[in-house]
Description:
The structure holds 2 protein chains of 2 kinds.
Chain A: H1 5-14, H2 24-39, E1 63-64, H3 74-80, E2 84-85, E3 88-91, E4 95-97
Antiparallel strand pairs in A: 2-3
Chain B: E1 3-14, H1 39-42, E2 51-52, H2 53-65, E3 69-70, E4 73-74, E5 76-80, E6 90-94, E7 100-101, E8 104-108, E9 111-122, E10 126-130, E11 133-137, E12 144-150, H3 157-173, E13 186-196, E14 206-211, H4 214-233, E15 242-246, E16 251-257, E17 267-268, E18 275-276, H5 279-287, H6 293-304, H7 308-315, H8 318-331, H9 334-352, H10 363-374, H11 380-393, H12 397-403, H13 412-425, H14 427-434, H15 441-451, H16 458-470
Amino acid sequence: MAIERxxxxxxxxxxxxxxxxxxxxKFSRQMGEILDYIEQLNEVDISEVSESxxxxxxxxxxxxxxxxxxxxxxxTVLSLAPEVxxxxxxxxxxxxxxxx
Amino acid sequence: xxxxxxxxxxxxAQLKTKTKMFCSCKxxxxxxxxxxxxxxxYGLPGALPVINKRAVEFAIKAGLAFNCxxxxxxVFSRKNYFYPDLPKGYQITQYEIPICEGGEVKVDExxxxxxxxxxxxxxxxxxxxxxNKTLIDFNRSGIPLIxxxxxxxxxxxxxxxxxLVQLRAILRYLDICDGNMEEGSLRCDANISxxxxxxxxxxxxxxxxxxxxxxxxxxxxxYEIKRQIEVIKSGGRIVQETRLYDxxxxxxxxxxxxxxxxxxxxxxxxxxxxxxxTEKEIEEIRKKMPELPLEKATRFxxxxxxxxxxxxxxxxxxxxxxxxxxxxKLSGNPKTASALIQTELLRxxxxxxxSVNECSLKTETLxxxxxxxxxxxxxxxxxxxxxxxxxxxxxxxxTLVKEKGLLQITDETAIEEVCKKxxxxxxxxxxxxxxxxxxxxxxxxxxxxxxxxxKANPQIVNKILKxxxxx
Lengths: 100, 471
């Protein structure tokens, strides 16, 4: 079942992906197909199956002592960024105040 | 129509751990930009978060101080959003099951504001907005935070102010956050709506950001309440939005962010199992809980007989409370200790923007000064006059008083002489006084004090002047 056009646009927006109006129908069909494919899992009868897979959300987490360790060199970090200014990562402006 | 404001606060407190929430990068804010990061901070493929034990302890401490229910099992989730200060594309936070629920912030004996929850999360990077660009320092990303969410119980800017003052005091007593709003280790967002008094349903809210002092929080909230009421009264509608406070103009303005879609798609963090703590661990932490500001204030009232308002002010900072307690005990006069600390000492400290730990005036010295007043060696006035010098030099008050010839005159014959001189020099006033204008008495006292440069013991002056004037 194809998913709705609005949902396709919403997902694209959240992922910061620009999509072309012409592709929307194709995406909505493809996304629907993916969901249908996964949906097949619900058809499997698991009533007779004993625990074969434990959720990662069982048990408890390991805690770390608060002791400092090594960090990455700044050079390395900055080389990963698309744009750099001085010792900072540079990105397009994120805040625009509405002018009065 | 009368309106009522409904205010809830979200406070983010940076925890004073040595390392980040999920990795062992350092948290020192004085370090050079972009030097404290690692693959976990950036969420690089294969990097796995590991929870900082001390951050968990600190959150439990806060939970105990605010009387929350501590959840033995809590769960971390991913809050997904796209923003440059968050290179992973999500923030690890607690959503459905936070570490602490409920509780309250008591602001005095019979006033408290309830809490919704306290949860653990990681901070985002620091962005510096510079016109056509934004510069980012990732050192802050991943520093542990607790977010303290109040219930919408506050009704005014003053309520919010009182709440924050006590909240900050408690976090500092617990030594889990340094509470510095200017440096951003304590940050506050306010949710505000108004509704006609008596109405149950909440009005549309706005969220206020950029509130970097408690006074600004109070002013911004009061401004926003007024604005919303005006909009409604003139037939308009409140738009749900985030607004920024401008302290120079004392007004709020809508903020436009490029993040338009608020759809966080929370889901349990697949890299972290649930956080499980035991009753035993909680009890260990409970045993180490310090006396909190309000408890201390109550004890000061009982133990030292000082006024409740004074006890409140003296206990907001633990260091000041300790200082007062020492001076009170050493001098044996808590009331004078309280008065001198609140007026003289705090004035000097504030003028130099110093905290009491940086104060060169030792508690022993201040106690000596108080003893000099109590044994009538000097008057209160003289004590206040020499205070600035003692504050700066920590000089022995008795030596200073002797050097300056400021010993109080308690010799009745000497004082009587001065009194006689004053009355002889002002025959007119004496007559007016005797004709019933008793208000002039203060004038004679003032003259005697002037003659003796403030050194005459006021009680004796009063006594002798009365006697002479009645002759």
